[in-house]
Amino acid sequence: MHIHILGICGTFMGGVALLARAMGHRVTGSDANVYPPMSDMLAREGIKVMQGFEAAHLVPAPDQVVVGNAMSRGNAAVEYMLNQGLDYASGPEWLARHLLRKRWVLAVAGTHGKTTTSSMLAWILEAAGLEPGFLIGGMPENFGVSARVGGGTFFVVEADEYDTAFFDKRSKFVHYRPRTVVLNNLEFDHADIFPDLAAIQRQFHHLVRTVPGDGLIIRPDHSPALDVTLAMGCWTPQLRFGNAREWAAEAIHDDGSQFRVMVAGRHEGTVRWDLAGEHNMENALAALAAARHAGVPVAAGCDALGDFRNVKRRLELRGRPAGIAVYDDFAHHPTAIRLTIEALARHRPDGRIIAVLEPRSNTMRMGVHHATLAAALTGAHRVAALQGPSMEWDLAEALAALGEKARVLPTADAIIDYCVAEARPGDSILIMSNGAFEDIHRRLMEALEAVL
Predict the structure, then answer these.
(1) What is the pTM of this model?
(2) Domain 102-305 - what CATH class?
(3) Which CA distances in Å does 106 have to 149, 158, 176, 218?
(4) pLDDT tens digits, 140-157
């Protein structure tokens, strides 16, 4: 079967492409923005990617078109597909129909931590010899790919609440029908498609409705938004993490690099790893609980996490030019920004943190987090933020409470110049963006090496 994927270079759709290829299909795709790492990964798998969305990309007609959620009416390829009556499906629909139907699906949902927790869970199952399949919205370093079919019963999926396609406005995760669900947290985000938190809670409750009575819902002990969601109706047992009564993490080192896992007051295992931050300890608890539901003892899961290598772009150390550590992180929501800065501060307590932020997400550009952004950045010693041309609000006004330590700059070049002038050996530069940010990481490291 020949499958053509519209929007193939997104992390989710690229993963679908890898799965379809591994299942023996001929796969091609189109995208407007073809860039690494997804473009490199697709090329390694022999998947042809075409630039742009031309009707000619669908000639001769593929057996099925898989449509990414970035596609909309008016797109030339979409209009041709509809006019010609080609068979089409959304990515989640295709995944559910062709791969998930007979698998034990373990889904990880929530505003924050989905990619990391999904990667931890897949690795724990892998270390236990269960050969899980997975589809993750990032690049787990332990596997080197974002998706694989797997050879066993279990399939781990990062369950995104974003809408499915232009013809299906339900959240993606409604299609997956999981037996094990992690609900990591819930906050307002994706303001481009959700008018308020209640709308997101309604979609999360659609997910809850699909979990069987003999499944398991794993959720944090303290999350008022999830409390409201689950109060709408829940027919599945719940396991709470983050409290001493059920599942808790007891830090041995302040930075979270070692901690004990306590289950109902019993010490079940100890995690020793390279990750930092309280949020990652909680991610680990959720992954361990989900893996235990699939039959992996907690102690074995803790041992596996000792060999866990984090996802790319999650406090990823890119280099140490001139004795200055340059980190790349995907944080783009105030909560994630705050937690990332706190984790880095605990990991490197003796140096300054220069936080570099590109407010690139649709929610950020719309100004939804205007009132909470400054507070999220208070843990940094210096802040350099990009006021891009698509911003709909005054970033300098929002960061005024940070005083002289914050600079709002118009270009990535200006941010590089600021960091080179400001940084000194022993500092950490933390670059936070959910996009490529004009290759700022490499360019900044080259500039630091040249000047310092």
Answers:
(1) 0.85
(2) alpha beta
(3) 14, 9, 9, 11
(4) 888 988 899 999 899 999
